Amino acid sequence: MSRGKLIITLFLLIIIAFGIVYFQYHFYRTPIESTQDQAVLVFGGPLKDGIPSIDKPKFESVSVADQYLDDKGYGLVVTLNGKQRFYPYQILVWHEVVNDVFGKTPILITYCSLCFSGNAYARTVNGVVAEFGVSGKLVDNHFILYNKQTDEFLTPPFEAQLKPLLSLVMTWANFKTNFSNGQVLSRDTGFVRDYTADPYKNYNTSNAVLFPVSQQDNRLPVKTVVFGYMNDKAQKAYPLDLIKTAGTVNDVVGDEEIEIIWNDKLETVQGFSKQDGKNVAIILRSSYWFSWATIYSNTELYKL
User: Fold this and answer.
1) For residue 4, is it within any domain?
2) What pLDDT sits at residue 182?
3) CA 238, CA 242: separation in Å to the nearest integer?
């Protein structure tokens, strides 16, 4: 190739590279309406749907899933009409979103790999069954959903826009022991992934936070696992280790009396609100402290 053609080729490659960078910056870092005034919005790496949601989930028995799931691996457990489903984080770390129908109820399962936050929601919005995907954008390290029908973004906390459902965080060992007839999200997702490998490698055991956050709350180490509760008047975080130590925590959030317990049999955290002399189950949100503290910047912190 002559020197002139080489220069032209290099010039064209530079133009193409500049165009790609500009497109990604312009499209993926444009402002999004957020519930957080100072939230840090960034492009997370993969493009829109680069982390593919599971839209036609299949399920398998406990005995089949036990052939590859790690006993110490966590997952989200949802119970409806007396039946349990286990959504392994080993699978969710590759997809982050599952659009499911449990019985006749359309539900949404989300898992933020960077925040250690798994949650369940009803996905009927204004009477319409919605389908959600991963936008490719992050806010304070938490992924942003988008509605596939309307192309609208949903920023955390998702419970401000979607109805949350009761769920539990549990290891695979405890689920298979206590719910041997339960259903397990299958690794037959329609995508080729190594569901025995973690794409984030040692992220969960390090002190690293991959992207900037809008504020730092030094009351706890950044990767401390907490279970948070919020109502109309207040938000409060309960470190997992303190819940285990106490066994039972009786507290007041806003003006609501709540009880948070460590369930020894299931080895999980459960919460209850004291209403009219009865204990009513409440929804707790698991998270790393840094994520909870940025989403709920006025949060209280429980201490023994």
Assistant:
1) no
2) 98
3) 7
Q: What does pLDDT average to in each consecutive run of 10 residues of the chain (304 residues)?
A: 62 52 37 46 71 98 98 97 97 98 97 97 95 95 96 94 97 98 97 96 92 92 97 97 97 96 98 91 97 96 92
Select from 185, 212, 232 the last residue of a domain.
Answer: 185
Say which residue the tokens 């066994």 belong to: 247
Structural domain for 287, as ranges: 220-301
On whether both 106 and 166 belong to a single domain, the answer is yes
Give, in order, the Cα–Cα distances in Å from 160 to each of 109, 167, 282: 16, 17, 16
- What's the rounded Cα separation, in Å, for the pair 303 and 220? 11
Identify whether 181 is part of a domain. Answer: yes
CB neighbours of 265 closer than 8 A, spacing ≥ 6?
A: 178
Bridge partners of 125? Answer: 128
* Dihedral class, residue 192 (left if φ above 0, else alpha if ψ from -120 to 50, else beta): beta
Copy the structure tokens of residue 168.
Answer: 């539990």
Written as six digits, the tokens of 9 are 């080729």
Same structural domain for residues 120 and 59?
yes
Query: Contact 244/268 with Cβ under 8 angstroms?
Result: no
CA distance 37 to 173: 41
The reply to whether 107 falls in a domain is yes
Q: Quick one: 169 and 283 in the same domain? A: no
Residue pointed to by tokens 């003006």: 255
The pLDDT of residue 276 is: 84
CA end-to-end distance (rounded Å), the chain: 73
Predicted pLDDT at 304: 83
